[in-house]
Amino acid sequence: MKVGFIGLGTMGTPMVINLLKRGFSVTVYNRTASKADALVVLGATAASTPTEAAQEADVLITMLSDDATVQELILGKTGMLDGLSAGQTVIDCSTVSPETSQRIHKALQERAIEFLDAPVTGSKPGAENGTLVFMVGGSQSALDKQRPVFEAMGTRIVHMGASGSGSAAKLAHNTIAAVNLLGFIEGLSMATKAGLDPERFVEVVLAGGASSKQVESKGDKIINRDFRNQFSLQLMLKDLLLAGDLSNSYQLPLPLQKAATSMFQIGLAKGLGDQDTSSIIRCYEDWMHTEVTKQASGQERRRNTRLHLNIPLLLSVYQWEQEGAFTGQTIEGQLFDLSETGIQIVSPFPLAQDMFVVIHFPQEADLPPITAKVIRIENDNGNFRYGCMLSGLAPYVRLKIEDYIAIYPFISGEDYETAENPY
């Protein structure tokens, strides 16, 4: 059987290698022609156009990045359509919308050409090992005819139903994968912030009820800081957006899908699009100011990094008088220390432990009032150092605090390295 293969990216290249290993004659095409060179050495034939790849093939496989590319290379003016003829079969392994799959199916059916939408799961390792799982939409007879082709690249071929069913299954599947990955990463971030060894925590997760394929495939990558692409963050985001369009067409609310989409959009904005989906951990590392990585034996939890400051503050102090009534006063203080979990304020005014204060930054900081609880008091030559735990501080507010601290020397004319601490 002669196979034409279009799209030699992360997934396409190892899929072609497995076809060649199983004895198929394969003609390949890629817009970046040099990607075919290594496959030609292994026995593939390189085509200069999609039409050329399609002309001599019994079955043509596409593995492309998005809906627009798939439609252009199959149905477009420069695509393969003119090279196809009745009796051939086109298998699209890309992840696209069911609507796109159905549109291609209808156009090819008019020319007596079979079409199967057959997206895969298994990422790069599955493509390399020939263990992909195919979710197939289209006729059962067309699938049965091409089963040897599928079996050369994967271990499970599941017929999902009519045209578009494979694409719908893939979007539902990747919604689950994204939510699972983020659930794992959030738990891992929590454990790391608590001072636990991330490697040991992953071991626990793998042995417990929270285990999943995402933990199996991404746990070691995260801990070893290996964000080389198996399945890129930007492609996961693309799939989540398609899943959102599909669920909206059903008027089906999917809160977790929407939350996952927002999280991967943050990752894309951070510049992680070309990296593996596991790189989304870097967003959480920014928020918790801690890197998730393998710990050396006996490594102690790192102390919070502290900045020594002298920023003037006003503190609103409220005291309970009687049922439904408070009295309060405003006192002066200075922000002396900032850590990952709290702040240290210096003031000559006495406060009590467990008292709540409302902190007001200088007007130019453009910061809202921040509530803190006094958890530690030290007497320092007539002044008091108050260790305060921040209460309900939103991540964006903390970032604004850090931005203000960064520019404060320029506003005040002070230098943190040389300014004397008046206390």
Automatic annotation (TrEMBL):
InterPro entries: 3-OH-isobutyrate_DH-rel_CS, 6-PGluconate_DH-like_C_sf, 6PGD_dom2, 6PGDH_NADP-bd, HIBADH-like_NADP-bd, NAD(P)-bd_dom_sf, PilZ_domain
SUPFAM superfamilies: 6-phosphogluconate dehydrogenase C-terminal domain-like, NAD(P)-binding Rossmann-fold domains, PilZ domain-like
PROSITE patterns: 3_HYDROXYISOBUT_DH (PS00895)
Gene3D superfamilies: N-(1-d-carboxylethyl)-l-norvaline Dehydrogenase, domain 2, NAD(P)-binding Rossmann-like Domain, predicted glycosyltransferase like domains
Matching Pfam families: NAD_binding_11, NAD_binding_2, PilZ
Domain 3-hydroxyisobutyrate dehydrogenase-like NAD-binding, first and last residues per copy: 164-284
PilZ domain ranges (all copies): 300-405
Residue intervals of the 6-phosphogluconate dehydrogenase NADP-binding domain: 2-161
Family, as annotated: Belongs to the HIBADH-related family.
Name under which the protein is recorded: NAD-binding protein
Organism: Paenibacillus agricola
